[in-house]
User: Fold Acetylxylan esterase from Amycolatopsis iheyensis.
Amino acid sequence: MRRLWLVALLTALFVVPQPAQAAPVDWAEPGPYAVVSEALDATHTVFRPADLGTGTHPVIVWGNGTGAVPAVYAGLLRHLASYGFVVAAADTTNSGTGREMLDGARTLIAENARPGSAYFGRIDTAHVGATGHSQGGGGAIAAGADPLVTTTVPIEPGPQGSVGALHGPVLFFGGQFDVVVLPGLLVIPRYYAALHVPAVYAELAGATHFTPAGDGGGFRGALTAWFRYWLAGDSQARGVFFGPACMLCADPAWSKVLRNAKALEV
Assistant:
């Protein structure tokens, strides 16, 4: 008994308590920022933190699907803004060239340099992400060829743009039950073509071509985490996609996850 008591005493004295592990972030839940939406210029709607504070905010440019407008995706765009991004959505039903999306980023960069602007000194001009749905996903690939764009996330993308021209990491989203942009025919081959950059393919179980509308459905959390990592350097988001404990890879909500050799090195 005395020996057991001594062991317990020594353990209490010399074992250093380990810090509690932070709970994983649920990126699908709203972020910490209150959000406002307003016209950026005559051709773009912006979704942004209501209080831009004293720091800078990365930019996301958005392209709509054919026939759609930013209001169709307002829940998703507001969600991204709630994580500190300034989201410039092109007010066009045809964003496949990517030019309309890039114009939004360039307008924000100009506003960042204009005294008196609400965006003066508040835009992180070195971190711009491009994303969009369907035709807008193809437009995101087209925009991603521009040196202005840091990373690209095509959601169930159309055929626009050249994957070989991308110069930054890319996350391709497919929908398991998408019969408009069939994953195996139209999305996965584009993932396999992205050998020169870190590339991930994630196929959402049960998703149709219209799942991204509204608040983004099951795509919302992974999209947010990707941009938080690549645009904001958020280390909490890295494990969603990268490393041996890749959360997406083990999540049954995703019917297929692929990572190329460069992504495995991240």
